[in-house]
Amino acid sequence: MPERTHVPVAIIGAGQAGLSVSWYLGRHGIEHLVIEAETPVHAWTDTRWDNFTLVTPNWHCRLPGYSYAGDDPDGFMKRDEVVEWLNGWLDTFNPPLRTHTRVTRLRQGADGGFELTLVSADAEQLLTADDVVIATGGYPLPVIPTFARTLDPAVRQLHSEEYKNADQLPDGAVMVVGTGQSGAQIAEDLHLAGRTVHLAMGKAPRVARFYRGRDCMTWLADMGVYDVGVQEYPGGQAAREKTNHYVTGRDGGRDIDLREFAAQGMHLYGLLEDGRDSRLQFAPTLRESLDSADATYNSICADIDRHIEREGIEAPPATRYEPVWEPDDEPTALDLAAAGVTSIVWAIGYRPDYRWIEASVFDGGGRPMQTRGVTALPGLAFIGLPWMYTWGSGRFHGIDRDAAHIAASIIDRVARGSAGSVVTDGATLATTP
């Protein structure tokens, strides 16, 4: 029989979200264990491309007890700088870590609490816990369409999380599928490297990098947009399914204008619908996708205009984006061989995978049913999900607040019945007598 041990709180995942909960629990003397299948914050080095740059300003980077303190708060850290910054945070505390250990099963215990099956290179262990925090990321499984397996095997295919640089791909043109943040930035990376790029657009919106003298995300933060809870956000829970706006922090930050790229030779298409052998089929949605992305761009700028006027802020005059390129037609097919396309980068997102969790806390789409990370099952919580509470959830801007809330719910359970109570102001925790 595998060895069985007990820990009051188990945190599954040692990314910045899980470690933030650990920071708060450690501060309050709550015994816990952080279990990580790889190494702490490994995703930053393993799943970001070489030229990856944050799309949020450096001042957004803040974690419990730690924030960006460099000389470029309005700049954008590159991948290796983010890794260095995260390692600096890890040096400030000593989380109880067990690395290279995967949780393959989580279920409710017969007498309450939870039972976890842990598998490492040389052993299997049973662990029981009173509370469990799932910090494995929102959507761990990369999405690749089923028809991908029917495409010409001579065309190399990889998901965006595998992409590192243009030299990694065989000579020839590249098809990038998807225009979320990763797809748009990878298309830019390949375009700047001199590769011929074919880009299949989705429905992702875009945002200006700078507007009226400041970064747009700084304006939005001042406007309180990142503090609006999902329940109060326009569209409510549907916001959780929205694709993030594409923009880049590369070279000091700039817009990603796909129309401009097209004018420079990038080939744009609508939504990729199907494919077989060397032929791809697209929906005639290119013009609609471009117009919709630009409408969002201008709408956000208009919101900033109203904020500036309302607050009486002195700023450069308002502007409006006008298209620099229009498609002549709506291409609905592409022969990969004839176009010299030798590789495809799939950047169409990820899907949830919680099959290892045996608990009735998921909706019909396999997504956790939670309120600010806390589920209806006592003792089970999630952290690091997109739009878990606000637009800032799942990114550096909102992790501290989310972690403080999750930790407070655990500490309340541990301290229930004691003379003191645990309170949170959303950024720090304190025990009051």
TrEMBL record:
Report if keyword GTP-binding is assigned. no
Matching Gene3D superfamilies: FAD/NAD(P)-binding domain
Origin, by domain of life?
A: Bacteria
Provide a Gene Ontology MF annotation, just one: flavin adenine dinucleotide binding
* Pfam families the record matches: Pyr_redox_3
- Keywords, comma-separated and alphabetical: Oxidoreductase
The record's section on PANTHER family has: FLAVIN-BINDING MONOOXYGENASE-LIKE PROTEIN (AFU_ORTHOLOGUE AFUA_4G09220) (PTHR43539), FLAVIN-CONTAINING MONOOXYGENASE (PTHR43539:SF78)
Q: Which first-to-last residue range defines the signal peptide?
A: none
Q: What is this protein called?
A: Putative flavoprotein involved in K+ transport
